[in-house]
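User: Quick sanity check before I run a bigger batch. Here is a single chain. Can you write out its predicted 3D structure?
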Amino acid sequence: MARTSRRSFLKLAGTAGAVSAFGIAGCEKGGARVVVVGGGFGGATAAKYIRLFDPTVQVTLIEPKTHFTTCPFSNLYLAGIRSYDSITFGYDNLRDDEGVIVVHETVTGFDADKKTVTTDKGSIFPYDKLVVSPGVGFKWEDTPGYDMAAAQLVPHAWNGGPQTKILHDQLRAMDDGGVVIIAPPANPFRCPPGPYERASMIAHYLKYNKPKSKVLILDSKDKFSKQGLFQEGWQLHYGDMIEWVPRSKDGKVVSIDVKNNTAVTEFEKHKAAVLNYIPLQKANDIAFTMGLTDALGWCPIDHKTFESTLQKDVYVLGDAATVNGMPKSGNAANTQAKVCAAAIVDELAGREPGVPTTTNTCYSLITPVYGISVTAVYQLTDEGYRGKAGSGGLSPLGEGPKFRAAEARYARGWYGNITNDIWSRT
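Assistant: Done. Predicted structure follows.
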């Protein structure tokens, strides 16, 4: 009888589902069990680094999708600069190289007393520690005329995947001379500079393919992340192709007319060739099911370990968590996950977790060769995380093309490094 390597066995078992995964779990007797819900920037990083920090810990990652499409760099796909496949990653590396048990099911239930989670297929997963990194959900009820069905016609494209493809295809199908409307939400939301990079990348596509068209940003805010840098770049590269309307000048969208592809503000109706409405956000639904959310719809956590303040032995990462002082971003989720992984391993070993330091780096592209950035190193305080004096910073205004081209290269390097750190290319 041919012998099967542990790596091959893990790969086969992970694709077979939870029953086989429990078979593997029984092979590693005595090890602590950690279940991770969500395979994005936070969850996949946590699963990998718990195994790296202590290979005796059995880690099960539960993620319904077999591939993860990133929101970072999805705007380059909209612009035609990158392919869809180049921003999509599988889980084979986590399964094969890191020894993570990967189960493609959807978590539907949670029992804090029994310390188990259940899935849509009836599988039951016991845990000693549970990590939840579900990403954002949307406040569908807050915008008249906009719901999950409407999003198939008026995409938000604020989750990577099919929504991104819908917006991409609509841009290709629109006539030259049409208006692309982007409506960013009020804070807090995932990736604060994202809508404005999206405006830039769509304008880049239009400039070279449909030059009579324009981008109209109807904003629920009166200021936005990296505003001066974006507006400097827009003026330089796109002239009047991009128009930004702040809330104070009737920029807030109050309803959506899906049938007529129209965004309605208090005083105006704006008809679009392509309408990209980004709703108000909250933690994803499973966080509510698990009792992890507060009255604001986000998940409060202990900033030292990322353990939920509402459920013991449950940790919340990334966009769903309220992490005072840090933005909701892929890079933030990645660094938070490493802090959380170390804390979990320490706690399982009976050690007191150390005092963490976190980071965030956020690059935005205004053209493929014109980048801007903000970086920060954070230290833990009684109020949450605060930037360390003298660390990080914002790209300066007024820099020339050589400086901006270097920032664009760094952006591509950052994306390659962080996705390789989490998933590798599979």
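The chain has eleven helices and 25 strands.

User: Great, the batch can go ahead then.
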